[in-house]
Amino acid sequence: MNLPRNLFKAALNEGRHQLGIWNGIGGNTVSEALAACGYDWVMIDAEHGAIETGDILPSLQAIAGYADVSAVVRPAQNDAALIKRLLDFGAQTLLIPFVQSGAEAQAAVAAMRYAPRGIRGMAGIQRASRFGFVEDYATRAEEELCLIVQIETALGLDRLEEIAATDGVDGVFIGPADLAASMGYTGNPDHPQVVAACEDAIGRCRAVGVPSGILTLDEGLSRYFTACGTSFNAVGVDLAILISGAKSLKGRFVT
Fold first, then answer.
1. Residues 5, 16, 48, 140: which is the catalytic one?
2. Is the pTM of this model over 0.85?
3. Structural Rg of the chain based on CA atoms
4. What is the CATH number of the domain that holds 115?
5. Which of 3, 167, 169, 234 meets the CB 3.0–4.6 Å disulfide criterion with 20?
6. How far is 221 from 211, CA to CA, in rounded Å?
7. 215 forms bridges with which residues in the sheet?
8. Does 165 fall in a domain?
9. What is the pLDDT of residues 18-61, one digit of tens each?
């Protein structure tokens, strides 16, 4: 059996822009419904909200039914044990939050790789290897794994080049909300200084040849960041869409 191809990683390497949506509501029904909407990628977010590590497996299985949609998973933290489990579940693209240095990026890379290049623990019978049917999985897995590191603090921005240049890092994701707080603009990710910092980060990523991505619910800003050079944008969050739709519906009946 062939090693499953990582469409998200392939698109990054080919320079094709990818549109994504955020899945923060637990349960595989929501993640599958989002995949059915036709986005290029669905982010399963286990950093915030009530999605536990074990809940991610059925979501991965649900999204896998949609051939042109990639699953991206964000664990709660940059932790080798969490990363190992997610990879064994069959996640091929991980977004690691709160990376602030080259050393932290290197730790994430090591967790993604088997020895001697890393520290990922061996497990022969798991979904990632199609339960042992992928030939030479242990020696080939790295080919289709994709590591995105999230820079979301002023300190991380200061060290962007050393983080982005880390061997094994495939892309940088900019987090405007936490970045705004780090810069002293808590709750205001659309502040001009924060937008300028994001634009600068996108440009610096382009300068070192590393794809960048971002999440913003402001449609105009998302389009602006795409024009600045982002490669993968998340443009919606499931809970925010639910709340907005519910409020809009109520407003049409109650004045």
1. 48
2. yes
3. 18
4. 3.20.20.60
5. 234
6. 18
7. 234
8. no
9. 999 999 999 999 999 999 999 999 999 999 989 999 999 999 99
226 found inside a domain: yes
Give alpha helix (H) positions in 7-101. 7-14, 28-36, 56-63, 80-89
> Sign of dihedral through CA atoms 199, 20, 236, 178?
negative
Q: Which long-range contacts (CB under 8 A, 24 or more apart) does 223-227 make?
A: 224/195, 225/198, 225/199, 226/17
**Residue range of the domain that includes 237:** 7-142+214-251
In this structure, is residue 48 part of a structural domain? yes
Identify the residue whose tokens are 């822009």.
17
- Write the CB contacts of 57 (distance below 8 Å, at least 6 apart in sequence): 89, 90, 127
Residue 68 within a domain: yes
| Residue 48 designated active-site | yes
Buried b (16+ CB within 10 A) or exposed e, 114-128: beeebbbeeeeebeb
Type of residue found at 159: R
Spatial separation of the C-alpha atoms in residues 16 and 45, rounded to whole Å: 23
Q: Say if residues 247 and 39 touch (Cβ distance below 8 Å).
A: no
User: What residue has token string 């964000």?
Assistant: 74
Cα 60 from Cα 12, distance rounded (Å) = 20
Residue found under tokens 């382009």: 206
The domain total for the chain is 1
